[in-house]
């Protein structure tokens, strides 16, 4: 058996997510990307994929009812000698916390834009999250087969609203009804919409094999457009792309599976391999021998027959081997990785080994939490997985007081999975749950009933805001807490949280206590 160095398998990994506004075509594009990877055999599977997702999470009636995907999952496939890990994110903004956490586990992102609509609100928000970590972005302008906006206009909008340089790699030949293919601006290649073949070399845009695809009356204007694009717009450069300042742009139609090959080829070629990950003590690089990773997502009951709980962990360094013992840094206890799993489009399989960049599912019964770090013994904690101050807070109304203890346990579990946040008031009054999006409350209610047999309702809480508090001044947090006993709570990790009835009250306290910092984002550990 030949020994491979850990650096090599990690270098083959491309771990990415797709960011977009709902309806821009993320599902359709995902589906087509998976086709290239051979992960699924049949075209036209969008429906099938949706069905699969909902059967897998049948327990969650609301997902079915409302037709939204609440599930974040990962899909692994191979293409062009690369192992792609595509991390799926929920489309609905009420689950944005989940999406933000998922984005901490990727090395690049594909931004899908609807050619008729341009940059939309959610795309911009998700882009900002990527920017915080300088994640390189590849842009796919979708739905070119429909009436769409002028390509210059779209590029200009990306540059202006996102402050991101654009470098078109392909240029659309026609739009809407007359969309006939794309022209590769730097390499003089044409890809035709009506032919499922490799791109063909041409002498230039004026080659009849290129411009000839358009109706006669559109040709002259199009040639001018291409000349302008070639001369006036930026060319792709790897450095600025990798730093997150410039995005290569592809035009296409996910529905018609057009332009997708160029996109995936470019991901294989230019998207970065796993990056180093910041931990509390040092930067961990993928080529280190020791295995490390962090949990960014917990999903319960993916398979209703097994009532299992899967922690999704991004491997950050080394080699994860099936059967190995890892250290759960939060508790210092060992955890046996006896059945780590890889996920594919329709399947999952036991992973015998995984490398930096891979995302593995670790079945467990509640040992692992979001934000947890696993290592081969080293005491370090990755600190990038964020928790956001809730925007909605509720008290839970329990009709059957006999179930109070069971409810406490259930809430603790739901909070560990990241379904909601849990705040335990210091004065002993009932627990408060906090969420970023209202649908999370529906999910909690549904799951408490379906999985634990606890029917609940919600009551208004007198608090509307929660802030984690800390201070550089010794004893200050304790002094603040003592002075505000009835407004103090502990979060899941026991960190002190100040609950405020109004923004006014919060700013009043902030002014009065200048040595206390009130934060609305907490990173785990
Ligand atoms: P998501 O919400 O971003 O996942 O979007 P979907 O992939 O579900 O697509 C939303 C709608 O747009 C669906 O009806 C798709 O069939 C349609 N769609 C997606 N891509 C294209 C495209 O390239 N051209 C056209 N005409 N429709 C598309």
UniProtKB/TrEMBL annotation:
Keywords: Cytoplasm, GTP-binding, Nucleotide-binding, Protein biosynthesis. Increases the formation of ribosomal termination complexes and stimulates activities of RF-1 and RF-2. It binds guanine nucleotides and has strong preference for UGA stop codons. It may interact directly with the ribosome. The stimulation of RF-1 and RF-2 is significantly reduced by GTP and GDP, but not by GMP. HAMAP family: Rel_fac_3 (MF_00072). Gene3D superfamilies: P-loop containing nucleotide triphosphate hydrolases, Peptide chain release factor 3, domain III, Translation factors. GO terms for cellular component: cytosol. GO terms for molecular function: GTP binding; GTPase activity; guanosine tetraphosphate binding; translation release factor activity, codon nonspecific; translation release factor activity, codon specific. This is Peptide chain release factor 3. One of its GO terms (biological process) is regulation of translational termination. The gene is prfC. It comes from Enterovirga aerilata. Its main location: cytoplasm.
